[in-house]
Structure formats: structure tokens, C-alpha cells
């Protein structure tokens, strides 16, 4: 190998390493710097301040890293990564067009979460896809480890009755937040983490220990629906995860034994959690004021006009209406917030984009990722996590792309086949973006 080739290889390695580190830093800052913490430095969610700071500062780092990844070196996409890249790019364009339509018809008020929650998540997905599969997996494992640490922190916060992150909502019962901005966010993210632990390359005993600790952290969060979803998810993961090296009959027998063992162990863990006070919110009626608030919020449709439903309302006006007429402090329903702030036609278009995006993400992924993704979406639909400035969609995007398996490429229209097709803005090959 000549000196020039050695220098070129070293330069390429240094570029990939720098991009890998930049990706990790940008994602960690976006995922684990919650809104209220950022509000201490800039007017991110509070009134006033520059327009530029109304988007998470780490979002700019993700966009910059993506720009570097796309335009400074060629990158390789193989198999189903090609169609996923195209689908994410297409959905990103639709989000931009939808945002432009809403701004033209209804102003900037309701567009913040479209960009900060969904568009940034799609750009983060593109950023990961431009990197090697080994790098993606490492990014996913690092994010997953920090999510586990967040659950551990939630346990410590409950025991100490003190939070690390800022939290301003008054609650009758202390609930931890971990490295998130809200107990419900901690619960939802812990459910997601539980589903991806089986996809790691860790030893079996470590996966079991982490799953148990995550369930304890889930109980500590006080998020009841998330806790129930997490328990149901464990059963689904045991039932539907493939067990290699066993015949179908052997798998059925082994899974039945494992389910019985998990149920016995689960009852012991649940009894211990009740005794420790971690499940105190389950000691009262499940259909309490918090549950009924998620039902009563739909009464707001009877308080607004058809024009408000079709054209959308200003978010502060909607919140004031909910507080005065329904006596609810918050809008804990993603469908209600999306319809009444975007307007029904834009909400329908937005739903189409999101469903298409989720279908593209979950296509061809391991069954564990599908179970975790579906459970995560269901849990988030019970609150406003999908309709506010939050990292929820970024979490889902990053983990699915990091742990997905690439299937062989199918026959392309041009007649080309094979596992490798270079798609690059700097490549001289015919297949260019």
C-alpha cells in the first residue's frame, strides 16, 4: 500500500470516527436534555426569546452532522436500508410541505412540534443510515444504556423523594422523572428500553437482570398504563421471540416453562414492589381523576365550533378553554391536541405521514422491535407525548434503525441486484441521490 493510500485510509477512518462521536453527542443532548432544563438557559418552551431557540439546540447539531455525513464522503446503503432511506426522505419532505401549508393558513403556532419532534427524528434516522451498521449498533447500545441509567435514577429518586431534573407540576404523589422531563415520559421510555434489551449482544444473565431492573424502574415511575404495558410486553416478548437452536415443538415447551417461571417470579417482584410502595398508585381505583381526565378531554369538541375543528385553534387559547370549561390543567391527549391545533384536514394529512413513517420503520425489523414500538406508541397516545416538543419519536427512530437487520436487496427497476449499492452525494457512480 502506497503512502497516499495509507493517508487516504487514515483520513477516512478519522472522518468516520469524528462523525460517529458527533452523532452520539448530538443524540444524547437531544434525548436527555429535557425541556425544562433547556428553559433554564434559553426560552425553549417559555414565552419570548428568539425564534431560533424555539427548536432544541441539539436539533441544530443533528442537522449539521447530517449535512456533513451527506456531503463530505460517500456512504453505503445495502438491502432494505435503501428503501428505508427513501421512505424517510419522502416523509421528511411531506412534513416540510405540511408545515409550510399550516404556516400559510394558520400561522406558526402549531408547527413547533412538527419540526422538533417529527422532522428532527426523521433527520436523525437519515444520519444513522449514512453510517456503518456496526456504528449504528454502538449508537443504539449507548442510547439504551443511558435509558437504563435513567430508570435506575428514577428508582433512586423515588427512594430519596428528590428529583435530579427540574419539574414544576404539582402532584399529590411523588413520581420520579429520571433523565426525562416527566414521569409519564420515564414510563414510556422504559417500556421502549425493555423491548430492545433482548436485541443487544449482552450475555443472557445480564439481559435478564436489566429487564427486571427496568420493570422496577417502570413501577417507580408511577405511570400506570406504561407499567401494565410493560408487564404485557414481557409476556409477548417471551411468546413471540424466536429461540434459535430449537425445533418448533421444543420452542413451545421451553416458552411455556419460561412463561410459568416469569409469572411466578413476576408475582414475587410485584408483591415486593407493593410492599416497598412502588405500586402505591395501583392501590386506589384505576378509574381515578387522572384516568377520567383522559376521557373528559374529548368533551372539548362540544365546546368549539366546526370552524375551529377544521381550521385549528391557537394552542394557548385551546389550553385556556380546557382549564376554564373542563377544569383540566393539561391536554393529555395527542389526538385532541393535533386535531384542534392543526385543523382536521391538516391533522388527517399529518396522520397519513406518521402512519407511513411508522410502517417504514417497523417493516422487516425483529419481532422484539415491533412489539416494543407498538407498545410505545400505544402508551404515548394516552398522553401528549406525540403532540409536544419531545424526543419520543427520536428514541423510537434511533433504536429501531440501530438494531434492525438488513435484508438482501430485491430486484431493482434498473435490473441491478446485489447487496451493495452506493448512494452518495459525492460518488461518481450512476446510483446517486
Automatic annotation (TrEMBL):
Keywords: Membrane, Transmembrane, Transmembrane helix. The chain crosses the membrane at residues 12-33, 53-72, 84-104, 110-130, 142-160, 180-197, 256-280, 334-355, 361-381. InterPro entries: VpsF-like (IPR048041). NCBIfam families: exopoly_VpsF. This is VpsF family polysaccharide biosynthesis protein.
Amino acid at each position: 500500500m502506497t503512502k497516499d493510500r495509507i493517508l487516504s485510509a487514515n483520513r477516512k477512518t478519522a472522518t468516520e470516527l469524528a462523525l460517529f462521536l458527533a452523532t452520539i453527542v448530538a443524540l444524547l443532548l437531544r434525548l436527555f436534555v429535557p425541556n425544562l432544563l433547556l428553559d433554564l438557559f434559553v426560552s425553549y418552551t417559555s414565552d419570548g426569546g428568539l425564534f431560533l431557540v424555539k427548536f432544541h439546540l441539539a436539533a441544530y447539531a443533528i442537522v449539521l452532522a447530517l449535512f456533513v455525513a451527506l456531503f463530505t464522503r460517500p456512504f453505503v446503503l445495502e438491502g432494505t436500508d435503501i428503501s428505508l432511506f427513501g421512505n424517510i426522505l419522502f416523509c421528511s419532505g411531506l412534513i416540510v410541505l405540511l408545515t409550510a401549508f399550516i404556516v400559510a393558513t394558520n400561522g406558526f403556532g402549531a408547527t413547533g412540534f412538527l419540526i422538533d419532534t417529527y422532522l428532527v427524528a426523521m433527520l436523525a434516522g437519515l444520519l444513522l443510515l449514512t453510517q456503518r451498521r456496526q456504528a449504528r449498533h454502538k449508537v443504539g447500545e449507548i442510547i439504551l444504556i443511558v435509558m437504563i441509567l435513567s430508570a435506575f435514577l428514577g428508582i433512586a429518586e423515588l427512594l430519596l423523594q428528590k428529583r435530579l431534573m427540574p419539574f414544576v407540576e404539582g402532584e399529590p404523589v411523588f413520581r420520579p422523572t429520571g433523565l426525562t422531563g416527566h414521569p409519564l415520559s420515564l414510563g414510556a421510555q422504559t417500556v421502549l428500553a425493555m423491548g430492545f434489551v433482548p436485541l443487544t449482544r449482552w450475555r443472557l444473565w445480564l439481559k435478564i437482570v436489566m429487564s427486571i431492573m427496568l420493570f422496577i424502574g417502570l413501577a417507580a415511575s408511577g405511570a400506570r398504563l406504561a407499567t401494565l404495558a410493560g408487564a404485557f410486553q414481557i409476556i409477548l416478548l417471551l411468546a413471540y421471540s424466536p429461540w434459535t437452536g430449537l425445533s418448533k415443538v421444543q420452542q413451545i415447551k421451553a416458552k411455556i416453562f419460561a412463561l410459568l417461571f416469569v409469572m411466578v417470579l413476576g408475582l414475587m417482584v410485584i408483591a415486593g414492589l407493593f410492599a416497598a410502595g412502588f405500586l402505591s398508585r395501583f392501590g386506589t381505583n384505576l378509574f381515578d381523576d387522572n384516568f377520567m381526565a383522559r376521557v373528559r378531554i374529548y368533551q372539548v369538541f362540544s365546546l368549539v365550533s366546526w370552524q375551529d375543528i377544521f381550521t385549528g385553534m391557537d394552542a394557548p387559547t385551546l389550553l385556556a378553554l380546557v382549564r376554564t370549561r373542563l377544569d383540566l390543567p393539561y391536554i393529555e391527549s395527542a389526538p385532541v391536541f393535533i386535531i384542534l391545533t392543526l385543523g382536521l384536514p391538516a391533522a388527517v394529512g399529518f396522520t397519513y405521514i406518521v402512519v407511513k413513517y411508522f410502517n417504514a420503520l417497523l417493516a422487516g425489523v425483529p419481532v422484539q422491535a415491533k412489539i416494543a414500538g407498538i407498545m410505545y406508541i400505544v402508551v404515548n397516545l394516552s398522553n401528549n407525548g406525540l403532540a409536544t416538543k419531545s424526543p419520543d419519536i427520536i428514541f423510537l427512530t434511533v433504536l429501531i434503525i440501530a438494531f434492525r437487520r438488513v435484508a438482501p436487496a430485491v430486484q431493482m427497476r434498473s435490473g441491478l441486484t446485489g447487496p451493495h449499492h452506493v448512494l452518495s452525494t459525492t460518488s461518481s457512480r450512476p446510483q446517486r441521490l
